[in-house]
Write a structure and sequence with these properties.
This protein is mainly alpha-helical. About 65% of the residues lie in helices and about 0% in strands. The chain is globular and about 25 Å long.
């Protein structure tokens, strides 16, 4: 399992617990629903999601994740 897949899975679980749709998150961070779902599933997206987009989504769904963890995962390393 890739690092971004595990990060995406954390977002997916938190989004489900928050009762939020993928479309809502997509609208919030200006990506399509399919782009957001691709990220959650660890698939390649047309444009890489940015640190700012992921932090905004995390804050919205109340996912307690350190910005450094997001940044490291985006660079291909996982550090908690």
């Amino acid at each position: 399992m890739s690092i971004t897949t595990s990060l995406g899975q954390q977002f997916r679980k938190a989004r489900a617990q928050h009762g939020c749709s993928a479309g809502t998150i997509g609208n919030l961070i200006n990506v399509t629903q399919s782009e957001w779902l691709a990220f959650e599933l660890g698939m390649k997206t047309r444009q890489p999601l940015t640190m700012i987009q992921l932090k905004k989504a995390a804050d919205f769904i109340k996912l307690q994740i350190k910005p450094a963890t997001i940044a490291n995962a985006l660079r291909g390393r996982y550090a908690d």
